[in-house]
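Quiz preparation item.
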């Protein structure tokens, strides 16, 4: 069964969304204003002649003077649940002072929020007359908030006062309307019955206000006294529980509608802001626009502005506005958790803003765990930048010392993610100079110690991350010697780890220490490791520092898996620094492979190009001739006809016998036919016919026959035939050539251009 208190907690959420919507609408129309704080009476440290203790002073000052609404409400809540009578006196005085409307509003909201708290409020009823004093006013002020604060009480506790106020015709209409609003909020049938009575009130404003309240609750108002009596009787028949159930259903529907409406207004406002921002052309003006919105009182606008700053920082190359830096740093201590989190993430990319001190200050007081960790990460990045050469930031060494302390704290957290972040920040700090040997060895030792604590953990992800940080320290030069001394044994040991990430980090560490020795050690057992990363790392390493001995195991991986191309690139690097004898040996091996296995044509070409350059430098002419012949054939097969023709031309020019020259010329003809390059084709045929007619057994004649019988896909043999007919001009009678041409015409049913002779 539902109780009045259960339903009240739900209504509070609904009304909060209403106020949000109201604020958004006001923002779109004219902006928001806060009242001035008058602390003349309450601002001193003395209350009723008794000096307040320190904590009470802090809470009182926060309630009266703090610019943040949330802090004022929190302070009011602390005072509300306090057993100290002086705390109660502060709240009472605030509620009775109409000038301090911001503090008064905070107390009303704290009372409204108290209905969801499990703690009891001492002498709760003392606040009832004070709230009714606020309701009994002709000005808006905090009357609605006071009405909402009455939900902290059972209806029976306030029904008499509400009944008297709403029924007193001598009171101003505004005060009676305030009471009607309070009645509407009460989940009690008696409040509905009272609103039904007011439908016939002599004051038109009161009657209209009551009707509006009933309709907003989904209660029919009826046309006359009789119909209204039926409505009341029906409500009584349902009983309290069914009434509350219907009430909650209506309120849920209203809340959904309000949420949709709120979402719509927010999207409209942000869309308008987007358009304004995008229309600004100059970077300086854009920066000023964002700076104004970064300090806006609305959280949603601060978050929107942070997103724009993030996009500017990451996604554009334009100069980042200098004026935004201090504003961003100031948001580290923003009252909203999401703003702090987004700011910290952004500052982790912007160490140049000199935010270390502010980050450290907020880190000490931050309560949200996720925000705290992100602040720590940003602090590590800021310190790394500040202590780097030429940073221009003069940061006290104490900041780095405290950052180290936080890093050690995170490093030894049980949470793997926190420990990882601790290791990462220690690594960053150790990448900058300025530490004495004792400090360096201490922090390196702590990394090793934390790693050893994870040895028996089935989940090796943290071991891998810790080992990655250690490997990174072995890659840099400042404290490399110290890092190698402590971490190398751990890398060696980790090669036997079953977790891929751990072995990968260990391989990296050994490579950073000595790449040549690492390859010599790892090629024995890890070229077929289960980890793709390890296999690829060894392949790349072989390409960088490997030699002839590595070509064998690399070649076994050609064409076998997704690493094939990476393997080939590594082999090419080794080939480029190999002697001609090694290249000749491998050229023979590749020649023995069938076309369906081993190297692709493109890979063969790249290898032969490397071999050709080495043969030229070593003046290996005989070998060079064979290489160029292979290249010509491969270029022709892969459709790179221009390169093929170039190599065939060189080979023909250097040929020593007539037979060789004719063979290379025939190969050129084949290339020009399949290219097709009609002009060069005609030139080759003319050169042949200059010397003699084509015999029936001529290779050139058979190549042309084959072309016309089986033209390449997409080729137009008529264009070639037209060129042979109209552009080939043999100097003397060439009867066989004429006969061949007529035969080709007939086979293609070719009819020449009648306008050409």
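Solution:
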């Amino acid at each position: 069964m539902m109780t009045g208190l259960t339903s009240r907690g739900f209504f509070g959420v609904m009304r909060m969304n209403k106020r949000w919507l109201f604020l958004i609408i006001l923002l779109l129309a004219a902006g928001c204003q806060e009242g001035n704080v008058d602390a003349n009476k309450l601002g001193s440290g003395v209350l009723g002649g008794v000096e307040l203790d320190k904590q009470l002073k802090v809470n009182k000052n926060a309630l009266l003077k703090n610019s943040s609404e949330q802090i004022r409400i929190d302070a009011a809540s602390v005072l509300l649940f306090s057993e100290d009578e002086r705390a109660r006196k502060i709240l009472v005085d605030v509620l009775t002072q109409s000038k301090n409307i911001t503090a008064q509003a905070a107390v009303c909201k704290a009372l409204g929020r108290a209905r969801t708290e499990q703690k009891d409020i001492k002498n709760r009823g003392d606040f009832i007359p004070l709230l009714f004093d606020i309701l009994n006013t002709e000005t808006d002020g905090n009357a609605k908030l006071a009405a909402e604060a009455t939900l902290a009480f059972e209806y029976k506790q306030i029904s008499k006062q509400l009944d008297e106020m709403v029924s007193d015709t001598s009171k101003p209409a505004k005060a009676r309307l305030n009471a009607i609003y309070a009645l509407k909020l009460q989940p009690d049938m008696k409040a509905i019955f009272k609103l039904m009575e007011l439908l016939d009130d002599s004051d038109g404003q009161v009657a209209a206000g009551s009707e509006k309240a009933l309709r907003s609750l989904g209660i029919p108002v009826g046309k006359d006294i009789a119909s209204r009596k039926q409505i009341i009787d029906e409500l009584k028949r349902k009983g309290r529980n069914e009434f509350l159930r219907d009430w909650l259903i209506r309120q849920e529907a209203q809340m959904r509608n309000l949420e949709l409406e709120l979402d719509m207004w927010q999207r409209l406002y942000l869309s308008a802001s987007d358009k304004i921002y995008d229309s600004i052309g100059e970077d300086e003006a854009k920066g000023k626009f964002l700076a104004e919105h970064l300090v806006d009182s609305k959280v949603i606008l601060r978050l929107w502005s942070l997103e724009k700053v993030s996009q500017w920082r990451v996604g554009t190359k334009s100069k980042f506005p200098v004026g935004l830096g201090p504003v961003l740093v100031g948001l580290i201590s923003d009252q909203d958790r999401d703003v702090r989190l987004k700011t910290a993430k952004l500052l982790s990319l912007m160490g140049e803003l000199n935010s270390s001190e502010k980050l450290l200050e907020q880190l000490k007081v931050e309560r949200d765990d996720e925000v705290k960790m992100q602040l720590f990460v940003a602090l590590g990045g800021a310190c790394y930048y500040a202590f780097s050469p030429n940073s221009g930031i003069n940061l006290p060494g104490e900041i780095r010392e405290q950052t180290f302390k936080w890093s050690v704290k995170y490093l030894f957290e049980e949470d793997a993610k926190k420990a990882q972040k601790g290791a990462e920040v220690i690594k960053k700090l150790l990448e900058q100079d300025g530490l004495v040997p004792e400090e360096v060895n201490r922090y390196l030792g702590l990394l090793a110690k934390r790693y050893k604590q994870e040895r028996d953990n089935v989940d090796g992800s943290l071991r891998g991350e810790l080992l990655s940080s250690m490997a990174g320290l072995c890659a840099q030069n400042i404290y490399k010697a110290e890092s190698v001394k402590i971490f190398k044994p751990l890398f060696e040991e980790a090669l036997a780890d079953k977790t891929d990430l751990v072995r990968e980090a260990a391989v990296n560490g050994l490579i950073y220490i000595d790449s040549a020795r690492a390859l010599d050690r790892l090629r024995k057992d890890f070229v077929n490791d289960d980890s793709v990363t390890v296999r690829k790392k060894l392949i790349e390493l072989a390409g960088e520092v490997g030699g002839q001995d590595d070509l064998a195991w690399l070649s076994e991986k050609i064409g076998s898996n997704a690493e094939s191309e990476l393997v080939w690139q590594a082999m090419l690097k080794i080939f480029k620094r190999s002697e001609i004898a090694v290249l000749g040996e491998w050229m023979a091996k590749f020649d023995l492979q069938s076309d369906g296995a081993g190297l692709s044509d493109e890979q063969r070409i790249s290898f032969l190009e490397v071999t050709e350059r080495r043969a030229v430098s070593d003046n290996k002419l005989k070998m060079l001739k064979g290489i160029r012949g292979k290249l010509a054939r491969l270029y022709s097969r892969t459709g790179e006809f221009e390169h093929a023709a170039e190599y065939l031309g060189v080979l023909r020019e250097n040929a020593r016998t007539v037979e060789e020259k004719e063979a290379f010329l025939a190969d050129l003809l084949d290339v020009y036919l399949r290219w097709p390059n009609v002009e060069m084709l005609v030139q080759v045929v003319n050169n042949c016919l200059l010397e003699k007619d084509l015999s029936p057994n001529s290779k050139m004649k058979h190549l042309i026959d084959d072309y016309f019988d089986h033209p390449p896909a997409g080729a137009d043999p008529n264009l070639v035939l037209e060129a042979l007919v109209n552009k080939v001009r043999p100097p003397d009678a060439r009867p066989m050539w004429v006969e061949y041409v007529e035969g080709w015409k007939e086979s293609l049913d070719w009819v020449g251009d009648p306008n050409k002779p």
